[in-house]
Amino acid sequence: MKATRIMAAAMLIAGGGLMGHLAQAQSAGLGRTDVLQHDLGIAGREVVQARVDFAPGVMAPRHSHPGVEVAYVIEGMIEYQIDGNAPVTLKAGDGLYIPDGAVHSARNIGGGKASELATYFVEKGKPVFVPAK
User: Fold this and answer.
1) pTM value?
2) pLDDT higher than 50, residue 9
3) CA 119-34-81 angle, 5° bins
4) How many domains, in total, are found in the chain?
5) 89-107 pLDDT, tens digit each
6) Residue 69 vs residues 35, 38, 66, 119: alpha-carbon distances, Å
7) What DSSP designation does 95 have?
């Protein structure tokens, strides 16, 4: 636990703008824990990883990212809705690829807490979370 706090403090100092961008995604019953932010070997791109926790029935509102997202469900059941596609329900151990710029939402449809590990391969310097209009 102490190592997690130290890493989080280092991310806050080193990550600067990331925390502000991810804070936009926070809402009641929806929590984010930053795990990693690192430059990729591709100019202008970075990888960002975060754990997202959903209270029962909570939905992450429609949004997009300036790159792709790979979601891995750690616990519970989450229904993902990518605009133009049928809803997809994932359980612990399942993963989902969300294309660059795709507007989507996610909702905990189980009776308990649900969590995912979200890995974003995005344009550096842009907000990771972009609310849909």
Assistant:
1) 0.79
2) no
3) 45
4) 1
5) 999 999 999 999 999 999 9
6) 15, 15, 9, 6
7) E
**CATH number of the structural domain spanning residue 29:** 2.60.120.10
Smallest CA-to-CA distance from 18 within 132, 105, 131, 120 is with 120
Does residue 15 register a pLDDT over 60? no
How many other CB atoms are found less than 10 A from the CB of residue 65?
24
Owning domain of residue 97: 2-131
Kind and range of the H or E element at 64?
strand 59-64
Q: What is the pLDDT of residue 26?
A: 52
Residue owning tokens 């359980």: 91
| Residue closest to 98 by CA, chosen among 52, 33, 37 | 52
DSSP structure string for 30-50: EEEEEEEEEE-SSTTEEEEEE
Establish how many alpha carbons lie within 13 A of residue 116's alpha carbon, considering only the half-sphere containing its beta carbon: 26
